[in-house]
Structures are given as structure tokens and as C-alpha cells.
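yo, non-specific serine/threonine protein kinase is done. seq:
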Amino acid sequence: MSPRAPSRPPRLDGYEFRSVLGGGGFADVFLYRQERPQREVAVKVLLSGIGDLGVRAQFEAEANVMAAMSTHPSIVTIHQAEVADDGRPCIVMEYCSRPNYGVRFRSERIAVEEALRVGVMIAGAVETAHRAGVLHRDIKPANILVTEYNRPALTDFGISIATTEAGDIEDSTGMSIPWSPPECFADPPRADVRSDVFSLAATVYSLLAGRTPFEATDRRNTAAELIRRIETMPLPPLERPDAPASLSRVLAVAMAKDPAARYDSALAFGRALQQVEAELSLPVTAMDVLEDRSRQPVAARAEPDDLDMHTRIRSITTIAPGAPGMQGAPGAQGVPGAQGMHGAMGIPGAHSPAQREIDPFAGIAPAPGELAASRAAAPGESTAPRTMLRPSASLPPRSPLEAEADPDPEPEGRGLGLPPWLVLSVVGALVLAVGVGAVLGVRAAFPEKEGPTPPDDTTEPVAFDDRDVAAPTDIRIEKIDMPGTEVDKARISWSRPQGFAQGDVYLVSWKDMEDGYRQFGEPQEVAGRESMVMNAPPHHDHACVQVAVRVPSGAAQSAGEACM
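structure:
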């Protein structure tokens, strides 16, 4: 099946069609010349044959999401969104004339310095999207454009849902398979911020290797084969002498099969890349991230990290929609197009927590923090209008007789020179004392008769679980180094003990943690599996972990232990 021909470019008032730039599963991109102001722009147009309301809502949501974040220096700028004369939705965006990285990584050898710079900058863009509650879910080289100022810019926040060509492995099933993490192929598919971390790391790998991470040069690369390798095969080495071993370790951690073993955020991955830059004596690339005050660091640092100076955290100014003077104002819903963004994208704050499940088209992260744009004004900041007392100009002057009869009328309550609050306090105390005395007197005169307490029939009986569950055995600890972070991780695994039944859960924790490390000793519940990845206490090379079983009645059974 040959690729389809591009659709007919729409007629847009104020724009002159120039050429076709490209096409995708459900949209084409054209180059137009805008008349006012005069500039070249890229216009993404939904295909005319697509009448699915879900696709149209997704297309509108992409415009709203990108517009809300397009002030970020590493996200493509959205100029406007409109509907063409033929009814097709359009997104007018910044035109990036340079070849994108989807073209370049196949045709040229990209320097390690450039790959690191791109990875750090896009990590800032991805972290900003995550803090806004948005998952990209389609990070790949082709979605990293290059601006006129030679800066990488992330684009395409709308995921394709149709293939452009039979057997096209890069667009099958509405995702880009070569850069997708294993959890995207589960049934049902799962995704969170660590899924985007995997895809970004796979993109950096592709820039360095000149091929996708699990692409074979001597075998077929069908979609099924790629999925099998992504799920089971270790990450192949880069095979570049100029790429240090530390960079390979960073990419291996970011692309771990288990999401819990990856970097917890795009920010952590970007900082790990910054450390590689510093190791190679390269200029450390700045990473722009919008501040999310709802996030708190795991542990406070005594001194700022060396990489902090290369991370620009910019604050977000939030105006409460219900604040005085905001009703009916443009943009009162948060950001331009926020209503469509909330409705189509399911941003936190627009739905209840129960409605924030990942679905194939949501594109919304079950983010570890709340959406910055949904937060109300900071506590302590008054939204009430200021009150200004001005002298009255409408009252007539007093006559000499009135002034003589009442030379200085004293306000009521000030005859004794006592402030009103003191008088009210004394009166209130007297009333309270009289009331308490009266109650005590009545109880002393008429004591209540003691009697049996009626039984409480509202308490349901609790079934007592007297099963004896053996302690978990074969406990193993595998240390996972996390380059570029202060806290490493460990994979804990064990064997299912005798007596373990449905409804039982495991409690896993580090044992005997002293002050300053108590958070590592908090038990973590694990259900349905006999392994987990958890943070390892730093500076504890011989720490011990314990695994216990808790039955549904709440009783904890004996625990098994193992040490590093």
C-alpha cells in the first residue's frame, strides 16, 4: 500500500498557501505565508475524511495544550487555532525550517555534545508538561524540530491513531513503537511520567547510535519483533568510542524495563545528562522548568547542588477564577482555550480523582503533583479589593450653633475612656461564668442515675483471621545505581510463603533506620507480585530489608530479612 496523497490545502483568510510540509495519520502540515504580521507559518490541518468526534476533540486538545505551554523555549509556539472554510480544524504554529531530528539521526553522525544538549533542553520541556499534568506519549526524533536559532523544540502533543502505511512500525497502533516503553504494550496499556522518560532516553540513544535502540541491522524489524525486544532484550551498547560509560549507564537506567527502576522525573534524567556534560568538560546546558510549588524535595540539601545554577525554575502566577473582577473576563478559565483543554484532555481539577484513569486518548499524566494552573492563589494573599478612606465632599458645613451645642460629640462607648473590645470581653466572661455555675448547680441538685449502657448494635462483627502465614523466603536485594541522583534504588524480590492467600499483602521496609533516614523505614504495601523497586538509604552499604505479610484482618505475620 503506497502512502496517501496529501489533502487539499484549505483556504484561510489572511494566509497564502506556499507548499506541503508533510503528513501524518490524521493530519497534514502545510507552509503558509501570513499577511499580518508577515511571516511564514506551519498550519496543521485535520483530514477532511475524519468525522470521529473523539479525533476532533483530541485535535482541539492538542492546540489547547501546546498553546498553554508554547512560551517554553523548547516547545513549538502556537499562534492560533481556527476552522477553515471547509470545516476542517487548523492549528497555526511556528515554522521550523531546519531538518528535524527524525531526518538527521538517519543521515548524519550527531555529536555527543549536541545529543546531550538536545536531551537536557527537551527534558526541561517534558518536565514542564508533566507539571502541567500532561503526558506527551509520543516523544521521538521526528517530533523534535529545530528553530531558526538552532534550538530544539518539542511538538506534536496529539498522538496519531491511524497508520499512514501498512507495516509502518513507527506509527502502528497510534504510537511510535521503536521509542515506546514496555508498559505501553501491556493489556491494558499503562503510562505515567516515567514512560515519557523512557521515550526521551530512547530518542537520545537514537541520536547517538544512528538507529532506534532495539533495531537490528541483520534481522527483520517488524512491529512484533520490536515489541518483543523492547520487553525482553537488554539495551544494546552504543558502540561509540566518544560516548563515556557514564552516558550508557544513564540511558540504561532511564530505559529500564521496570518503570520503578527509572528516573522518577524528566528533571532527574536531565540533571543526569548535565552531569555527563560536566564530566566531559562541556558547557552545561541550561534546563528551563516551570516551578511547581506543590512538590517538595525528598531531603533538604545543606548546600545547593552544583547543577542548580544550570536549571532555571520559573514561577507560575496563578489567578483564581473566582477572584473579584475575574468573572466574565477573557481567560478567566485559566489559560486561553482552557475550557477545551480541560474538557478534552481531562486536566486534574476538571474531574474527580476517580475520573483521572489513563485511557488511550487522554494524554494526561497521573502526575505526582497537582496541575499548577488548577491551584488557587497562595494562602495569605488577599484577593479582596483594597479599601481607601477619603474625606467626604458632599456633607454641608456645620453651623456655629451646632458646633457650640455639640463641640465634640464623643462616640458611643467611649464615655469611660475604655475601648469597646475590653468592655465586650468583660461582659462575655461574666456571662460564661454565670452559665457554667448554673449548670454545675443543677447537676449537683439532680444527680443522674447510673444504669447499664445499651449495647451498640451498629458495629459489624469482624472476622478473625487466625491463619499462620510463613515468613517470605529467598529475599534478594539488587542495588540499582542512579547516575546523577542523590538516592539510588534497589530491586527487592522474594518467594511466596506457605499460607499466603488472596487478599494478603506484603509489607516491605528497610530495617533499623536511624534519625534522618526514618522515611526509608516506612513499610510499603505490595500486592499481586513478589518484587518491587524502592529507594535505597544512602550511605548504608549493608542495610537490611524485611518483608512481612499482612492478612485482611490487619494482623502482621512474621517477617523475613536479608541484608546487602
